[in-house]
Design goal:
flat, mainly alpha, 85 residues, 0% strand
């Protein structure tokens, strides 16, 4: 039993681009909606940034801070300490 029909990789990429474009449009609507209060707009933008960080970074690259070395290594160190030989 097959629930989904397989698609070609070119079709997948086309659908992915369409989805990304739609998400960018949604982000613009959230960011520039004059009928929404500033606090609601901040909450929605924060949620969008958390859910779709790659889309948010493309639209607002100056607002995305790069990970610092120390922050990125913390998880690895903790995981290494938990290893048992």
């Amino acid at each position: 039993m097959q629930f989904c029909a397989p698609i070609a990789s070119t079709e997948y990429e086309k659908q992915k681009k369409n989805m990304d474009d739609a998400l960018e449009d949604l982000l613009d609507q959230i960011a520039y909606d004059e009928n929404t209060s500033a606090s609601d707009r901040r909450k929605k933008l924060k949620q969008f940034k958390k859910t779709y960080p790659h889309i948010y970074a493309r639209r607002f690259p100056e607002d995305v801070e790069p990970k610092r070395k120390a922050e990125s290594g913390i998880g690895l160190v903790k995981r290494l300490k938990l290893l048992r030989f």
